Amino acid sequence: MLSWLIVIGTCLLIVLIFFIFNIFDTASNRKKLPPFYSGWIPWLGCALEFGKNPLRFINLMGHKLGPVYTLKVAGERMTFLTDAKDFHNFFQSTDVDFQKAVQSSVQKIASVTEEAFFKNHTKIHDTVKGRLSFHKLPPFCETLHSKFKEHLVGIKNQITIKNGCEFEAELNDLVRSTMYKSIMDNLFGDGVLPTHDEAAFKEFEKNFLIFDEQFEYAARLPKIFLREWTKSKNWLLQMFTRVTKQCMQTIPADVESRSLLQTLIAVIDDDFSPNWSMMMLWASLANAIPITFWTLCMIYQHQRVLEKVQSEVRQVLKENEKCDESTLALMPYTRQCILEAIRLRSPGIFTRRVIKEFRVKGYNIPVGDLLMVSPFWAHRNSQQFPDPEEFKPERWENIEKNSFPESFIAFGGGRYQCPGRWFALLEMHIYVSLFVSLFDCKLLNGVPDLCELHLVGTQQPVQKCPVVLSLAK
Length: 473
Ligand code: HEM
Known about the structure:
Elements: H1 2-29, H2 42-52, H3 54-65, E1 68-73, E2 76-81, H4 87-92, E3 96-97, H5 98-110, H6 114-131, H7 138-161, E4 167-170, H8 171-188, H9 198-213, H10 215-218, H11 227-248, H12 260-267, H13 273-286, H14 288-301, H15 303-319, H16 325-329, H17 332-344, E5 350-354, E6 358-360, E7 363-365, E8 370-373, H18 375-378, H19 421-438, E9 439-443, E10 466-471
Parallel strand pairs: 2-8
Antiparallel strand pairs: 1-2, 3-5, 4-10, 5-8, 6-7, 9-10
Helix pairs in contact: 2-3, 5-6, 6-12, 7-8, 7-19, 8-14, 9-11, 11-13, 14-17, 14-19, 15-19, 17-19
The protein binds protoporphyrin IX containing FE.
The site of protoporphyrin IX containing FE has 24 residues, from α6, α13, α14 and α19.
């Protein structure tokens, strides 16, 4: 009898202890965490699904788990916010940090040590922001225009030689080769990078494309999987080591006449100038050039839009030999087309590191999580962008010239928002208007599909985009 009482008493005691601890835990200790992706062997299942099609997977999880959810991918906890009402907090909160989110990627991709990163990053960001600020752009109008024109007239001459008939090309290659050279000359100094010699340019282009294509994987995978990428990165670093050395000796005293590259290396006081310059080159080419390609695809694919752009640009550019701010202001519809293409091809994600517990929608996001927002999916929210998959440039009517609506987050936000955004819009505006004014263009297979394998940056096309070009009538 006594032994029975001891057994029952012990059981009651255990239940009581559980009860007390559970109450205690719920009341004061347990934090409310966001839903976590779970499935068959959760982390493995998640990594596999994520790897297969990351862009679709993050959207699917949002529908399944709600506006705040967490994935664990390759050992990293990523918490996604999908409600536009939380974006302001994401960009402005002091509980999350841009630099701590990107530092290790910059180290893996560009070999900038942790110490050098924190010493120079803010200084570099502010320098680029100052040099490419809205008010500093007018001188770029003329130089970009003349470089783009030089390269596009080169294409026009090839068509004329062929009797004014037709010229077959791959649109993405064509945009890239004509824009790369112009942007490199404008930002890094005329001929400072290999833009004047065709063979040297081709070698540069080959290495840059490999560097760009595997950029995102390089931030995550060990070097052993990235042999080709590492070779191209080293090629680019060697090029920049030569270039920055020469550049250092020729920096003009007059600050205003310095190129962006000269401005940049003048503020870096350690040995990492080639590494930062390589990152700067990547940032200036990796997003704006694909968007220019998509803009042209979408314009030429939509007859009604095309006619509107054609009548705008052909009229304005016929009457104005030179291109300045006032000329661009006369082509607002072309700018609307560019904004619409950016909306539809925005970066998959950007990120911040949680440095102090971050509260959102009643959840507590722990320190160390990467907090993620997807502009690509945010721009497909039908409440803010009705018929989100449609290419409708008219939705950007009445947008102020030097600001964006809050729902448009392609360039990030907060302290470290893209410092090249105004330059990007300017170069695309000039290029697209010149292109449409010079050429008629038939897309032989329509607009290519977008590649869903990358989350960093704007999307690339999956298929080639063969076109037939002819001189504008
Ligand atoms: C359509 C074109 C472009 C898009 C969509 C884009 C988007 C972005 C985004 C989303 C970020 C990160 C911001 C954040 O997390 O809040 C960024 C950073 C940056 N962008 Fe852009 N960008 C574009 C063009 C350019 C151009 C043309 C340049 C330079 C000429 C440039 C220079 C930079 C630099 C230097 C950073 C890094 C800032 C830092 O580390 O502090 N971008 N860009």
